[in-house]
Specification:
The structure holds two protein chains of two kinds. By secondary structure, chain A is of the alpha/beta class. Chain A has a domain at 4-226: Amidase signature (AS) enzymes (Alpha-Beta Complex). Chain A has helices spanning 4-12, 18-36, 44-59, 102-109, 152-159, 176-182, 216-226, 270-285, 301-316, 334-345, 348-361, 367-390, 412-416, 423-428, 457-468; strands at residues 39-42, 71-75, 113-118, 165-170, 185-188, 208-213, 256-260, 289-293, 393-397, 432-439, 445-451. In chain A, strands 1-3-2-4-6-5-10-11-9-7-8 form an eleven-stranded mixed β-sheet, with helices on both faces. In chain A, helix 9 (301-316) crosses helix 11 and helix 9 packs across helix 12. Chain A is globular, with a radius of gyration of 21 Å. The termini of chain A are close together. By secondary structure, chain B is mainly alpha-helical. Chain B starts with 6 loop residues before the first helix and ends in a 10-residue tail after the last strand. Chain B is flat and about 55 Å long. Chain B is built from three helices and two strands. Chain B has a two-stranded antiparallel sheet. The chains are: A alpha/beta, B mainly alpha.
């Protein structure tokens, strides 16, 4: 499939139609998604209506927008009015939201065509997309392997070339890690840069929506469309994010960049470390000064995250009580109905995190667990701030390994370790992007991560663009 | 703090969260929760006495919107998605009575 940039240009110029572009996307999905399982639901009639509107605008001499006719897939934890939105959970099976998430409106206003909803780990809790009530998604590069998670369906849909763009959500790495494992670009923007209105909350102080794309330019194009202040989200930051596209090709000459020492050693596979060091060399060759920096608190990120995220989740998921939406299992009174509904509707990982969070917040343990984790969060943010006094950007691997076999990590702690490189950005609220950079010893894609200070996405994208030009592009499409 | 939580505590936490854990699952959940809490023990080695807690990365205070009436969600559309509704309201089993 062509890039989003090429598709939009061709449709705006009248060289191809949105309707035929959509048909091509659906036929590629029909040909291979039975095997990949990236989509839970296709929004066909809504997509066909939107494509017809785009074509009519072009015919009338109007500009349908920068994403004119571009097929986009949406992680199934973002609300789409009248279309199923499940969070890959039985508890929301059959629910059709009465409103659209803000990002859906922004994409459609820019001309994009929403083709369907993608698979995820239940309520975005997981790192492999195996933990879905509707079956695992498979990695298009090797269908015996996981695509990563939790936004595995959105990553796989781009890697398989079903769509050029998709949206995911990233709470501890859920966009960047699957992007790395599927050989595509994945962006976690600054916390508050993209509206969370209509994103079904997992951990509200960490969650952020961002794009997947097959290349850095398309990711920049999409981020520029979806970012911006939204009064519907009380945590939306007031200032607009500077657009990333205009300076995309400005390079890294004169930039000071540092590799995070703690993330290229113990616990990270040798081939992944090697690719990360090669990425550093590529940035140096392009004129950046590249050094190493120690950020000791990063090693405490995982422990802090697995207290903070479950604590927030235990509160957020209290709303699934069988009263207002989704499934209900009857009981003799409200409390019995709540217990029966939640016990039948949630999967084991969701139950684990709800219990962990409830415990971490409970009387007598609050200070020891949740309170302490919040202080560690400050420590991490402070150490990053100190590093950014000396450096423009930081560099690290995205994932400790390439894609692993489906079923290989049955122990929850083993899966949690997948997030060790990505979690610090969520805790600090900073942006980060994963870019494919070569392959591991097993021939599967490796992703490297560029980290930037809050609101410095434009600079981050410049480095990502340089890295993209310095390594082979992974191909897994038909 | 230490990475210890007993099966009884897990059952108690589950009931607080309105979850029922089957007896044969209790041991597995307890082991798994202990493993996560053990990693949290690593935080004990840090001196955090002078470090303030951080609730969210981009502090905004008193976020308000203009006091203007705007349309809310369509009531019929919302209630159509509820498990049970009657007379324009959500319908639930009796709220009073013994807790489970």
């Amino acid at each position: 499939m062509s890039s989003a940039t090429e598709i939009a240009a061709a449709i705006r110029a009248g060289q191809q139609t949105a309707v035929e572009t959509l048909e091509k996307s659906y036929s590629s999905i029909a040909a291979r998604d039975e095997e990949i399982n990236s989509f839970l639901h296709l929004t066909k009639s809504r997509a066909q209506a939107q494509a017809a509107v785009i074509d009519a605008k072009v015919a009338a001499g109007e500009d349908p927008g920068p994403l004119a006719g571009v097929p986009v897939a949406i992680k199934d934890n973002m609300c789409t009015r009248g279309e199923p939105t499940t969070c890959s959970s039985k508890i929301l099976e059959g629910w059709r939201p009465p409103y659209d998430a803000t990002v859906i409106g922004r994409l459609e206003a820019a001309g994009a065509v929403i083709v369907g909803k993608t698979n995820l780990d239940e309520f975005a809790m997981g790192s492999s997309t195996e933990n879905s009530a509707f079956g695992p998604t498979r990695n298009p590069h090797d269908t015996t392997r996981v695509p990563g998670g939790s936004s595995g369906g959105s990553a796989a849909a781009v890697a398989a070339e079903f769509v050029p763009l998709s949206l995911g959500s990233d709470t501890g790495g859920s966009i960047r890690q699957p992007a790395a494992l599927c050989g595509v670009v994945g962006v976690k923007p600054t916390y508050g840069a993209v509206s969370r209105y209509g994103l079904i909350a997992f951990a509200s102080s960490l969650d952020q929506i961002g794009p997947f794309a097959a290349n850095v330019t398309d990711a920049a194009l999409c981020l520029d469309v979806i970012s911006g202040h939204d009064a519907q989200d009380a945590t939306s930051i007031p200032e607009a994010l500077a657009p990333t596209l205009p300076s995309l090709n400005d390079g890294v000459a004169g930039m000071r960049i540092a590799v995070i020492e703690e993330l290229v050693g113990e616990g990270i596979d040798d081939d992944v470390c090697a690719r990360t060091n090669e990425a550093a060399d590529a940035l140096a060759a392009a004129g950046a000064t590249v050094e190493r920096v120690s950020i000791p608190a990063t090693i405490y990120g995982l422990a802090a995250y697995y207290l903070i995220a479950p604590a927030e989740a235990s509160s957020n998921l209290a709303r699934f009580d069988g009263v207002r939406y989704g499934q209900r299992v009857d009981g003799e009174n409200v409390a019995a109905m709540n217990v029966a509904t939640r016990s039948a509707g949630f999967g084991d990982e969701v139950k684990r995190r709800i219990m962990l969070g409830t415990y971490a917040l409970s009387s007598g343990y609050y200070d020891a667990y949740y309170g302490k984790a919040q202080r560690v969060r400050t420590l991490i943010a402070n150490e990053f701030a100190a590093a950014y006094e000396n450096f423009d950007l930081l560099l690290s691997p995205t994932s400790p390994s390439t894609a692993f076999e489906i079923g290989a990590k049955s122990d929850p702690m083993a899966l949690y370790m997948c997030d060790v490189c990505t979690i610090p950005s969520n805790l600090a609220g900073h942006p980060a992007i994963s870019v494919p950079f070569g392959f591991g010893d097993d021939g599967l894609p490796v992703g490297v991560q560029v980290l930037a200070p809050m609101l410095d996405e434009a600079k981050m994208f410049r480095a990502a663009k340089v890295l993209e030009g310095a390594a082979p592009i992974p191909k897994a499409g038909a | 703090m230490s990475g210890e939580i007993s099966p009884d505590e897990v059952a108690h936490v589950a009931s607080l969260a309105r979850l029922r854990i089957a007896d044969d699952e209790l041991e597995t959940f307890t082991e798994q929760l202990c493993a996560v809490l053990e990693t949290a023990d690593a935080l004990n080695s840090l001196d955090l006495s002078d470090v303030p807690p951080m609730a969210q990365p981009y502090p905004l205070a008193n976020v308000v919107r203009p006091d203007v009436i705007v349309p809310s969600l369509d009531r019929e559309e919302v209630l159509a998605q509820a498990p049970d509704a009657q007379d324009g309201r959500f319908r639930v089993p009796p709220a009073l009575g013994e807790a489970p």
